[in-house]
Model the fold of this input.
Amino acid sequence: MTTSKAVLIRGARIFDPGRGVDLVGDLLLSEGKVAALGEVPAALAEGAQVVDARGLLATPGLIDLHTHLREPGYEYKEDVSSGAAAAVAGGFSAICCVPNTEPPNDSRAVTKLVMERAREAGRARVFPVAAATKGRKGKELTEMGELKEAGAVAVSDDGDPISEAGMMRRVLEYASTFGLPVANHCEDLSLSRRAPVHEGVVSAWTGLRGQPASAEVVMLARDLALCAETGARYHACHLSSARSVELVREAKSRGLPVSAEVTVHHIALSHEANRDFDPNTKCNPPLRAEEDRKACLAGLRDGTIDALVTDHAPHTDNDKAVEFDDAPFGVIGLETALPVGLGLVAAGELSLETLIESLTAGPAACFGLPGGSLAPGAPADVTLVDLGMSFTIQPSNFLSKSRNTPFAGLAARGRAVATFVGGRSVFGWPEGLVR
Amino acid sequence: MAFAHHSLLGIAQLSAEDIMTILRVAETFHEISERRIKKVPTLRGKTVVNFFMEPSTRTRASFEIAEKRLSADSLNFSPSTSSVTKGETLLDTAKNLQAMKPDILVMRHRAAGSPHFLAKHIEAAVINAGDGAHEHPTQALLDAFTMRRQGKAFGRLEVTIVGDIAHSRVARSNLLCLTKLGAHVRLCGPKTMLEPGLEALGARLYHDLDAALEGADVVMALRVQLERFGGDTLLPSAREYARCFGINRSRLERVKPDALVMHPGPINRGVEIEPEVADGERSVILEQVTSGVAVRMALLYLLSGGSPDAVAKD
Done:
């Protein structure tokens, strides 16, 4: 990223819960780094471009650990450029893109391609998560040493689980050789049968096939046993059930090197949202019962769950305008995560501190990413949030190529109004992307 | 006053009053099928499309006869492949059907919720003729109609439904319909065929057939659909099912003396029901088929704007 002129963000409420910072003051970004915050000496800020941020919240740039960018292979749904644009419009300065592309990101070539596209786009930082096994088939290890060198920050076969326990053990052993965290999509396919909704009152009511919570719990329990045995860094993707949260809590109390994430839609919605057969509520893992939703929220609050993620999974209207059973799994979230999260804060289900920490310092620590902090010397990735702005979530305004959100029409309050990456303004509301 | 619903997507949307209105109107149409000339001009000039994306013989035939007896112009449209395999979306299908300007669309589909999706994008009234394992509202209505004609009052009626409840749209619609009317519904089958969430819908679940049959007023056996299992093991064999959950003469000793035996058809004789029971004196299985025509005539009439109070059928 080219280093531009210094920027002085003036009068913001500087909010960095990862470091316990909450003060009204100025924030100076220079040479791509946070140069100073609080009372910035005039001499230091001389010549800087001034941004009047009075009344706004200045947080570390938001980080998403779980984004599907669809490139290469499914560029009609999303590509690196449109996904990175959607990210900064939602306040995300960094996103980690998972490898279920075509071809899958199981090679240096694809990792490099994604990073090159991200550089060209010049929006959010894009950190590739490479496949853990060749072709994401769960049979052979990928060349993780080289993948890490190329820029991969973690390995995962996301979209699919690593089904065989023996293979998972090898993945954990080998990845930890290079210090790469292993992120697993926990789904025992013999239990889930890829059923479209959670097994419970809504599956009983709708007649849609249900996948039991045990489909997730069984594999997570297996992974935690393997994590204990190998000592490898393990990250549980998109937890959705109450029992899973308990398992991670217990594993952490035993000191295992475990981290976990939950999606925004799993803490905002329950399977009640599936009752009307709207394919834009179909995701995997499925939306679960209210007690699961509550347990995931509790897990975020007590730190059992480290990161709030989008699992941004773009599918076009065409992909979704089919029978519920036939519709692909997944919803998008980059442009709705923060407003929906702030809605949960307003409803008293989450504190603002927890929300922002789980979108900044929390995810940064999971994969050892730069950012997530406004400490002097940290990357100058900053998000300005207007907590008071009321607006309606309108998919037609999205910068993502896809519109598959369960939150269309939601009356929201609070959104990102500016995003800085490396000290450079990349998004401003309402003007949009900054050239 | 016209019937309060534009479409019939499921029993879930109906009130007890709506259901009783349909049964009452069906009663007046029942007589037409007994006439020498079984045709009235009620739906003359109306177009009804029978859109069946899943094979069906009797439901489609029943609708077709109902349509013809009401003088509607009807068309059968049964694409052999799903829209997805053709590269078309269900939305495309809906738009194409709408472009032909039907008045009523009767729809059968293997995927739950498909008629609900279609109804959002089409002006015609939609009648759900079975969507996946979700609902089969006309079956539940014809079952209730049959019970009523057999002199059963719904208040505190004990109805036992036996079979693969989890995968049955007939069971789901009957459960909703009968509980709305005040009946008590017992669902019985092995645990592989009963999902726990069904209890929240107001049913009592049984795994012991004898207990489920004790004092029942109506026994409904469902077809064991071995072809629907899709590789999922729910049963060791048809033989074992017949032994543990088949309705036979000795098991029927536990039900009330005037209890009815019902089955939505087609029957697997000797699996879920013994031939001598299916053809026995308590069986109203063929009456159900006759009722189906009357109930479907009533629905076609009501959904094309007919008044429930002054039934104009001549």
